[in-house]
Design a protein that fits this description.
Layout: H1 2-16, E1 18-29, E2 38-40, H2 45-54, E3 60-63, E4 69-72, E5 79-82, E6 91-99, E7 115-119, E8 122-129, E9 133-140, E10 158-165, E11 173-176, H3 180-189, E12 193-200, E13 203-208, E14 214-218, E15 230-235, H4 246-249, E16 255-256, E17 265-272, E18 278-285
Antiparallel strand pairs: 1-5, 1-6, 2-4, 3-4, 3-6, 5-9, 7-8, 8-9, 10-14, 10-15, 11-13, 12-13, 12-15, 14-18, 16-17, 17-18
The chain binds 2-acetamido-2-deoxy-beta-D-glucopyranose.
Protein name: PAN-3 domain-containing protein
Pfam families: PAN_3
Signal peptide: 1-18
Length: 291
């Protein structure tokens, strides 16, 4: 009886399960929309793919002939460009759940269907292949955690993402956080966090209201070897005065800080002159009431 039951289980399993595989193509995650979680140098492509497979926070690995190995979370890049095989050998490997038993001679077929994910704030994702791109679409568990799409929607706040160097790290609190989106999420859900900087790979420094007065903005989308330049800023725009450009976001005035914060500040303003790298912050303390 026991033996019969085991045979039954084994024969049932293969048709229903999916196997996680690394699917490699000639391609490169877009650097402008991409926020790598870690960068390794001197890594052969095979090792890079294997390391990504073993790393629960790696969903896509990128490597090239310079023996660089770059990991991305699925939520941390928008699309990968298809590349023609060349001396530079731009390769991307996607971690995908392939239905068991799927037999195909076309790599593109392996990308079909929705990938269930359900971790790190993401519910599921799918990849659309166009003539020049692998376009990744992912669903957030909580729509209000989606970084900056419509800042004046029904959500009370929005996380704006841009590049720059954060305030000195001793002014904030640094934690080990394995990927950029989780750093954004952590700052989003922490009532005292207004700004976070991925101050090292897999390091997230979070700053509270009033703890800094300026930071430096950059436009460089290149993959940084040691210190990423990823910044997220929590904004509270008014629907009546919705910022439409980066210039408007970084010049928002008198944003009301939620009352739950323990920071002691009531509102804040920003000033950024387009020709300058510097963003200035000013903080208005909560009135000290006497009764
Ligand atoms: C490989 O990627 C790194 C990081 O983007 C880049 O600095 C380097 O120039 C690339 N090498 C080649 C041969 O394209």
């Amino acid at each position: 009886m026991k033996l019969f039951f085991l045979i039954f289980l084994f024969s049932l399993a293969p048709s229903t399960q999916a196997i996680t595989k690394m699917v490699s193509v000639n391609g490169q995650p877009d650097t402008k929309t991409g926020w790598p979680s870690i960068v390794y140098s001197n890594t052969e492509w095979d090792d890079c793919v294997q390391k990504c497979y073993n790393d629960q926070y790696c969903d896509v690995a990128y490597g090239n002939s310079s023996l660089i190995s770059v990991f991305y979370g699925i939520s941390d890049f928008g699309f990968a460009r298809k590349e023609i095989p060349s001396a530079a050998l731009h390769r991307a490997s996607f971690k995908l759940d392939i239905p068991n038993g799927l037999c195909t001679s076309k790599v593109d077929d392996l990308f079909k269907g929705t990938q269930s994910y359900d971790r790190n704030g993401i519910y599921d994702f799918d990849i659309t292949i166009t003539s020049n791109e692998y376009d990744v679409n992912y669903q957030y568990r909580d729509g209000c955690e989606k970084p900056f799409v419509n800042p004046c929607s029904t959500c009370s706040k929005s996380m704006y993402l841009f590049r720059g160097t954060g305030p000195p790290t001793h002014l904030g609190t640094t934690r080990d956080i394995p990927k950029w989106f989780l750093c954004v999420l952590q700052c989003s859900t922490d009532v005292d966090c207004v700004l976070a900087w991925f101050s090292g790979y897999r390091k997230c420094t979070m700053y509270t209201y009033g703890s800094f007065n300026s930071m430096s903005r950059s436009e460089d989308p290149a993959i940084q070897p040691d210190t990423p330049n990823y910044i997220t800023l929590k904004i509270f725009p008014l629907k009546s005065n919705c910022p439409m450009t980066e210039h408007e976001v970084l010049n928002l005035k008198n944003m009301v800080i939620p009352a739950e914060t323990t920071s002691g500040y009531a509102d804040f303003s920003m000033t950024w002159i387009a020709s300058s790298e510097n963003i200035e912050f000013s903080w208005v303390p909560t009135e000290v009431r006497t009764y």
